[in-house]
Amino acid sequence: MLRFKSLGSGSSGNATLVEALGLLPFRVLIDCGLGLKHLVYRLGQAGLQPEDIDAVFITHEHGDHIGCARSLSLRYRIPVWMSHGTHAATGSPDFDGLLRTARDGETIELGGLQLTPFTVPHDAREPLQLTCTDGSAKLGILTDLGHATAHVIAHLKACDALLLECNHDTEMLAQSAYPAFLKRRVGGQYGHLANAAAADIARAVRHPGLKHLVAAHLSAQNNRPALVQDVMAEALSCAPEDIIVAKPDDGSCWLQI
C-alpha cells in the first residue's frame, strides 16, 4: 500500500513525502526545497521526524527543489539520489559518501519502493521526474517542465495517482507584470506547464484506476486554484472539488492509493 503527501508546492519551495506501508514502512522525500528548520517543522506536521526519512530524491538543481538537501543528508545521514547533471550544476558538493546517481529509465530499488526517473524538458542541467510504486499502486510525480514529450506520457501510463504541475493560466501570465524575458521563460518549451497543457496530460493518461490528481506548483501571481480545478475537472470528467490543490504553506493531506 502506498500513500503520499505534499509538504508544500510552489515557487517558495517543493517537497513531497512518499511512503510504502507495510511491516517496515519505507519513506522517500521527493525534493526538499525548504530551509532545514522549516522542513523539519513540516515533517512534524505530517507526524514524522527527519530520522524517519530513508532516502531523498532531487529532481533538479533549482533552489525551490534542492533546498536543504545537503544539510539534511549530512546531519541525518540520509542517502540522496540525483542525476549527475544536477549534482554538477550545484558545483559537485561533497555528500560524504551519501550521494547516489539517478539515471533516466533506471529503476531504483529502495526498501518496498521502486522509483523510476525519466527525463523532462526543463531549463535545468539534467532534470528528472519520476514514478513510484510498491508493486501494486503507482504514483506519478510531474512538475517543472515546459511540455510533455511522448517519453513523459509513456512513463505516466497506468498511474493510480498523479501530482501534476499546473503552473499558470496563459492569459494571466500574458497580462502579468512579469518582464518579457520571464514570461518567455515560464511559458516556453523548457519552462512550466500551463493549465491547458496539464489538462492535456491528464487526458492522455486518464484511465478508470486513476484515483487522485493533485495539482501542484501553482504560480501565486499567474494562477488561481479555482481555475485549475475547473480545467482539470473538465479533462477528467469529475467534479472540481475532486481535484486537490497542493498549497505553498501546507501542501496537501495524506492520500492513500
Beta fraction = 15-25%
Give the H and E element order. EEEHEHHEHEEEEEHEHHHEHEE
Strands, count: 14
Strand order of the largest sheet: 6-5-4-3-2-1-14
Q: List the domain count as a whole number.
A: 1
The poorly predicted ranges are none
Specify the helix fraction band. 25-40%
Structural class: alpha/beta
CATH class category name: Alpha Beta
Name the shape in a single word: globular
CATH homologous superfamily grouping: Ribonuclease Z/Hydroxyacylglutathione hydrolase-like
CATH architecture: 4-Layer Sandwich
| Main sheet specs | 7 strands, mixed
Report the C-alpha radius of gyration, rounded. Answer: 17 Å
- How many angstroms separate the termini? 7 Å
Q: Do you know the CATH topology? A: Metallo-beta-lactamase, Chain A
Structure at a glance:
The protein is an alpha/beta fold and 257 residues long. The protein is built from 9 helices and 14 strands. It has a single domain, classed as Ribonuclease Z/Hydroxyacylglutathione hydrolase-like (Metallo-beta-lactamase, Chain A), CATH 3.60.15.
Note down, in words, how this protein is organized:
By secondary structure, this protein is of the alpha/beta class. The protein has one domain: Metallo-beta-lactamase, Chain A, CATH 3.60.15. Helix content is 28%, strand content 25%. The protein is built from 9 helices and 14 strands. It has helices spanning 36-45, 63-66, 69-76, 84-89, 150-156, 170-175, 180-187, 195-205, 225-236, and strands at residues 2-8, 15-20, 26-32, 55-57, 80-82, 99-101, 108-110, 113-119, 128-133, 138-142, 161-165, 212-216, 244-245, 255-256. The strands form 2 sheets. Strands 6-5-4-3-2-1-14 form a 7-stranded mixed β-sheet. Strand 9 and strand 10 form a beta hairpin. Helix 8 (195-205) runs parallel beside helix 9 (225-236). The model has no long low-confidence stretch (mean pLDDT 97).
